[in-house]
Specification:
This protein has 337 residues and is α+β, with helices and mostly antiparallel strands. It folds into 3 domains: 44 residues, no CATH class; 128 residues, no CATH class; 110 residues, Endonuclease, Chain A (3-Layer(aba) Sandwich). The chain is 42% helix and 16% strand. It is built from 15 helices and 11 strands. The strands form 4 sheets. Strands 8-9-10-11 form a 4-stranded mixed sheet.
Length: 337
């Protein structure tokens, strides 16, 4: 934007109509030098990132609206799946009696139940727990979120809030919310303490197959009680630690050397067996089963107690799969009638 032309215009996105009425030249307000975040809105700078894009449409939102769904998830920094991130529209939610907004690039939701609203980057945003419940609308066939996505996001929310209880309370406040069955099933697997989506998925892979539940990001100490480090997954009674080695943080020479030192410290001074999990260990069915068996051996869990068919990620909830089976049976019965 040319500085002298911008003189007298707000630094934040603004409605153009009031400035037209007070005599600001049309040639300036309609100039290609100004950006248009939404119809009737002008801004001096091109928005960069979701927070600036959201700020750009604030002038056309009602005072009781708040950013929600995938927009809220992005503003909160939640670990959204690739399919969810592909939705670059701006989602806003307002009370049920709010007139539905119809503007390109904006999805307006009307809520029967009130949501907690918090301030994020000076924007009104639906709170963490209510945002997690709103993601129930995004699960199902042909939609971007599945059961494991809700567990991953649920872990992140519960860890940030320090408890799973706010998620359960937010869900129970709703009457028949969309995706309730999947949300309830996901809630049973949400835990406090996970530090990354991959740690959550590794835990789900191991526990679903029949291995005991580990403590998450738990301290490892030597016999004298001195802290040796924090284990991603820790089975303290069995003296086994699971370490997820993400390639983005553990693939360089320095990182590998540091990991090796930490592992030796756990094993020699803490008498803890360390089993590593790499991305390749979760890449396909055989790799996942081999990983589960390796942990089962370390934990002294016999293979007969395992169900390796549950090692794969899950998109559909048990409820959704049961409904699909029922529909297939009904179609089959009609064909033979």
């Amino acid at each position: 934007m040319v500085p002298d032309l911008a003189e007298g215009l707000p630094q934040q996105a603004f409605l153009s109509a009031p400035f037209r009425r007070v005599g600001v030249p049309e040639r300036l307000l309609d100039s290609a030098l100004l950006f248009r975040p939404a119809r009737g809105v002008r801004a001096l700078e091109r928005p960069q990132g979701v927070a600036e894009r959201a700020a750009g449409i604030v002038p056309v939102l009602s005072d009781d609206s708040a950013f929600s769904h995938v927009t809220a998830g992005a503003l909160h920094g939640l670990p959204l799946s690739y399919a969810m991130e592909r939705d670059d529209r701006l989602h806003v939610t307002g009370p049920l009696d709010t007139r539905r907004m119809r503007r390109p690039g904006i999805v307006a939701h009307r809520a029967f139940h009130p949501r907690e609203v918090v301030d994020v980057d000076a924007l009104r945003v639906v709170g963490l727990a209510d945002t997690w419940v709103d993601f129930g609308e995004l699960v199902g066939r042909g939609k971007p979120a599945g059961l494991d996505d809700l567990v991953v996001i649920g872990d992140a929310v519960a860890t940030r809030l320090g408890s799973v209880r706010p998620l359960r309370a937010a869900l129970m406040r709703r009457v028949r919310p969309r995706g309730k069955a999947t949300l309830l099933e996901a809630l049973e697997e949400v835990r406090v303490g996970s530090a990354s989506p991959r740690e959550t998925l590794a835990r789900l892979m191991l526990v679903r197959c029949g291995l005991p539940e580990p403590a998450l990001n738990s301290p490892v100490r030597d016999p004298a009680g001195r802290l040796l480090g924090i284990a991603d997954l820790l089975w303290e009674e069995e003296a086994v630690a699971g370490e997820y080695q993400g390639e983005e943080f553990h693939d360089g020479e320095e990182e590998r050397a540091r990991d090796a030192t930490r592992r030796r410290r756990f094993e020699s001074r803490g008498n803890v067996t360390v089993e590593e999990i790499w991305k390749a260990d979760m890449a396909d069915t055989q790799a996942r089963e081999d990983c589960v068996l390796r942990f089962a051996e370390a934990l002294k869990v016999p293979r007969s107690r395992l169900d390796l068919s549950k090692a794969s990620p899950r998109f559909f909830s048990t409820h959704a799969m049961d409904l699909a089976i029922q529909r297939d049976m009904q179609r089959g019965a009609r064909r033979w009638a």
